[in-house]
Amino acid sequence: MSLALWNHPVTADRYRHFTGRHDRYRRAARALVEAAAIAPGHRVLDFAAGIGCTALASLEQLGQSDVVTAVEAAEAMRLAGAVRTRDLPVNWCPATPAGQHYDRVICGAAIWALGPVADVVADLAGHVAPGGALAVSLPAAYLGEPDVPGGGSDPWLGRLPEVLAGMKLGKAPIDPLPPLNDLALTQAFADSGFSVIRTTLRQRLSQTAYCDWMTLPPVNDTLLGQLPPEDRIAVVGRAASSLDTASWRWEAWALYTGVRQEVQPLRISTD
Ligand SMILES: C[S@@+](CC[C@H](N)C(=O)[O-])C[C@H]1O[C@@H](n2cnc3c(N)ncnc32)[C@H](O)[C@@H]1O
What we know:
Elements: H1 3-6, H2 9-21, H3 24-35, E1 44-47, H4 53-61, E2 68-71, H5 75-84, E3 90-93, E4 102-108, H6 117-125, E5 128-139, E6 149-151, H7 159-166, H8 182-191, E7 194-206, H9 207-213, H10 217-224, H11 229-240, E8 248-260
Parallel strand pairs: 1-2, 1-4, 2-3, 4-5
Antiparallel strand pairs: 5-8, 6-8, 7-8
Helix pairs in contact: 3-4, 6-8
Bound molecules: S-adenosylmethionine.
S-adenosylmethionine (SAM) binds near residues 1, 48 and 49.
């Protein structure tokens, strides 16, 4: 996923539209905040904060005087997030403030796109305060773990990508995602000195939600990349009109919470 595509007004607009209509990211954000055990008094860093779903879910658990630092590199997303959280204690930044440490560092629905996972986890881990935690979430399918079918005549929701692929308007990804799996992610946490717990969120993804999600330029680029992002919405809409809207599938989200082992100072008696 290219950062340039996230920094496109159509992306910010479609993300806002999607989160307004569907609870996919809202539910995933709440699960992440629960996995991170965010509580009043915590200083929270929300990395790759998008338009604020994870920051808003954090605020639900924080106290009145707490602040979320939301780091979002794509200006279009960051500005949309700042508007969405106007009047709320969210401090939007284009990059992580240097030298700062946080009780909770969270990264929702982005880890696979940020670079080699060991480097990304090490970087995020560097901002976790002593006794703090790092929590990340991602669809388990991105770990190579296939989802199970749901219901309707298209229970894997495979029909839309099939129809779009048939149009032959795709483009090879500029930066193909490096393969990721459970072992690599768990190892990355361990290498950064964390003991890690994995939990799972299972939710239904409806055909309608999937079609709306497919209008996001970073998502549809491999299938419709030859078209300008503005023109892809109508193309997806036309393809969606021929699909079974009663269809849905299960979607698993993997949540990893790393807690740093406290090293107790060795007390040597001089008696
Ligand atoms: C699916 S959104 C998740 C946003 C939010 N955490 C949520 O759960 O709603 C992924 C975010 O990752 C960011 N992102 C993608 N690639 C990135 C990169 N290479 N460097 C920094 N941020 C990136 C995007 O700008 C986008 O806001």
